[in-house]
Amino acid sequence: MTTETAFAPAERASEAEIRRQHDTLAARPLVRDFLDAVPNLSVILNAARQIVFANRAFCAFLGIKDNGELLGRSYGEVFNCPYASVLGRRPGEAVGCIRSHLTEGGCGTTPFCRTCGAVNAILNSQQRGELDIQECRMICGEEGNNERALDLRIWARPIDVGGEIFTVFSAVDISDEKRRRALERIFFHDVLNTAGGVKGLADLLVRAGLPETEVHELSSMIAEAAGQLIEEIAAQRILAAAETGDLQVTPQELDSLDLLRRVIRQFHAQCADSGKLVQVDTAAEAFKFVSDPQLLRRVLINLVKNALEAVEAGGVVTLGAHAAGGSVCFAVHDAGVMPPEVQTQVFSRSFSTKGHGRGLGTYSIRLISEKYLRGHVSFVSNAAAGTRFTACYPRILPPAGGGAERPA
Q1: What is the DSSP letter of 49?
Q2: How far apart are CA 92 and CA 99, in angstroms?
Q3: Three-state secondary structure of 259-296
Q4: 277-303: per-residue pLDDT in tens?
Q5: Cα–Cα distance list, 251 to 234, 235, 256, 373 (Å)
């Protein structure tokens, strides 16, 4: 029976076929010695995209010891090699991609896989018979718990071994490169632009003999621009601390409507220039709750930023809030609709519709919400409803180290 797939073929080779292919490669010392000399994570895949050979770097990445301990061995009784546990698996399954278990067909067969650089590199290499290089954004671990975001550069190239075609699949972690490029983009463009605006306003104030009312207006503009500059720097500091596990959480009692109004004030100047509007939903509820004001404000600011970028001039972004039992939820809505290929990558690190070197906004929203604020973020985006992001949290966030249930 054929297994259904949303993208790449789901069929797999049998255990006997995996064993034969592994033995074919293992019998060629040059293949083994060459792969072990390569510092990149490297495996050899069969036509069904299953691993039939792996190098030392790949085993070390997975934490597999020389005796094969750590992972449960799917072929442990068949193969006498340290990485027996990953033979027959596909790359995403071996490294723990959170999407790889969503369908019966596994890695490569989910709707999310359509935009995965890893499976696309493999398929392109197989179809064209040549090297294909792609970038891959992958989240590994358990969804919503101890997730680890990987940015990988993937090489896939076909090789002929005894008349049989395999794919050499290599990966290198480029997370640091992506992080550096994103920070360079932010600090060399956004922050410098804001700083230039502050300096220009200050110079104008010094040179011009203006009436007191205009001096006050310019002073307010300078203060607002300086505040934006501080926000940009603070946002990157929060993200860096969140990824390294050094972020400190300081719960305080907050008022829901006051929080939304403070977020809206952040966008007064931007809305005045663009003709867009950010407003509190008339159905938003007033309630008290306990959370970290700086982190929660950062989540909502990023959500509003994304919404403003999605709407045309004259568009409206609405902020809502409601409480139910032990949970509180905040929503950001706009009338735009995200394309399906964007929806599958919304929370991926480094993905952005704004171009290369961006894409930390929604990633940081999810990271901060789930890892530090004990909540979760979801969205709907369709022609009938527009786009609505909803972030839900416990009504009382315990201090760091305290236990709390995730909001339902």
Answers
A1: S
A2: 8
A3: HHHHHHHCCHHHHHHHCCEEEECCCCCCCEEEECHHHH
A4: 999 999 999 999 999 998 999 899 989
A5: 18, 18, 14, 9
Over residues 319-357, the pLDDT tens digits come to 999 999 999 999 999 999 988 888 887 776 554 544 333
- Total Cβ atoms within 10 A of residue 224: 17
3-state secondary structure of 74: coil
Measured between alpha carbons, how far is 237 from 94 in angstroms, rounded to an integer?
33
CA 133 – CA 156 distance, rounded (Å): 7
Residues whose CB falls within 8 Å of the CB of residue 131, separated by 6 or more in sequence, listed in order = 125, 155, 156, 157
User: Cβ(41)–Cβ(171) under 8 Å?
Assistant: yes
pLDDT in tens, 228-282: 677 667 767 777 777 677 788 999 999 999 999 999 988 887 787 788 999 999 9
The structure tokens listed for 283 are 């159905």
> Given a cut of 50, is residue 198 above it in pLDDT?
yes
SS3 233: helix
Highest mean pLDDT among 61-75, 90-104, 194-208: 90-104
| Residue 336 identity (one-letter amino acid) | G
Report the alpha-carbon angle 405-406-408, nearest 5. Answer: 115
Both tokens assigned to 194: 């804001």
**Alpha carbon of 234 to those of 45, 118, 227, 313: distances in Å?**
44, 34, 10, 28
Give residue 59's identity as a one-letter amino acid code: C
Nearest-angstrom CA–CA distance, 308 and 83 = 49
CA atoms of 87 and 69, how far apart (whole Å): 14
β-bridge pairing 288-291 and 145-161: unpaired
Q: In the numeric block, which tokens belong to residue 8?
A: 């790449």
Estimate the crossing angle of helix 361-371 against helix 212-244, to 10 degrees: 60
Quick one: pLDDT band at residue 189, thresholds 50, 70, 90?
A: low
pLDDT value of position 31: 87
pLDDT exceeds cutoff 50 at 8: yes
Do 388 and 401 form a contact (C-beta atoms < 8 A)?
no
Token reading at 186 = 């932010």
Helix (H) and strand (E) counts in the chain: 13, 12
Helix 212-244 and helix 293-310, axial crossing angle in degrees, nearest 10: 110
Say if residue 308's pLDDT is above 80.
yes
Given a cut of 70, whether residue 309 has pLDDT beyond it is yes
